[in-house]
Design a protein that fits this description.
By secondary structure, the protein is α/β, with parallel strands linked by helices. The protein is built from nine helices and ten strands.
């Protein structure tokens, strides 16, 4: 269990996280949704202890330290790989530093997405780099896999393939926390959703509960955020009125 208790993060005068409390069990794909600047990336970086924060984050009751950090992996569009190394060299490096590295899974995914093993990562396209970043994260052997907008630069067909691959290869103990704006696209592949707004968790709901209520994820999010459907029309009307 990954437990987040009263976690706060302040950047200058801005409260990026305002006392976040969450419990994330193992064995599920969880969507983390929110507007730009809602605190999604900040929350993930706090979990990984990349940035200082107030509050408490534990993994099975223990603080996140060098002793257990290998149980958490991270895929980000900022990229964590070494551009001058090849995928083959990365795999060798990971096998040395992560005893649970899933080499067979790595080989299968590299072949599935037709990524070259012996070319430096700097020569990859943006989409290929993001694919490789995700492959490394899900092959590290971690129990918790954090993904921050991992599919940027990939076309819809590659993204759909990746969702299906995730469902097919994840073991029962593996959890994915997926932050993305592609809400409707991932709604069929996640088990539950966490909604964050202005640094606060505003809802956590299972997809099964939404289905039983006959509600879509997008509809639930709009209702939770009190989205005003007429705001576009109102803005256009104001512009037209000013131009007259």
């Amino acid at each position: 269990m990954l437990r987040i208790e009263n976690v706060k993060k302040i950047y200058g005068a801005k409260h990026a996280l305002k006392g976040v409390n969450l419990e994330i069990p193992q064995g599920e794909i969880i969507g983390l949704f929110g507007e730009n600047g809602a605190g999604k990336t900040t929350l993930m970086k706090c979990i990984l202890d990349f940035i200082p924060y107030q509050g408490k984050i534990t993994l099975d009751g223990e603080p996140i330290t060098r002793k257990n950090i290998a149980r958490i992996s991270f895929a980000t569009t900022e990229h964590s790989f070494i551009p001058n190394l090849t995928p083959k060299q990365h795999a060798e490096f990971y096998k040395e530093h992560f005893p649970k590295f899933l080499d067979k899974r790595f080989q299968i995914l590299m072949e599935f997405f037709d990524l070259p093993m012996n070319r430096p990562l700097r020569s990859f396209s943006t989409g290929q780099k993001n694919q490789f970043e995700v492959i490394l994260a899900i092959c590290q052997g971690a129990d918790y896999i954090l993904m921050d907008e991992p599919f940027a630069g990939n076309d819809v067909f590659n993204r759909e393939d990746f969702y299906k691959v995730l469902l097919g290869i994840l073991e029962p103990h593996e959890t994915v926390l997926l932050s993305t704006h592609l809400i409707e696209e991932v709604s069929e592949f996640i088990g539950s959703a966490i909604l964050i707004r202005k640094g606060e968790i505003v809802s956590q709901v299972s997809m099964m509960d939404l289905e039983e209520q006959g509600e879509t994820l997008m509809g639930f999010i709009k209702k939770t955020y009190q989205y005003k459907a007429d705001r576009v029309g109102n803005a256009i009307s104001k512009l037209e009125w000013e131009e007259e």
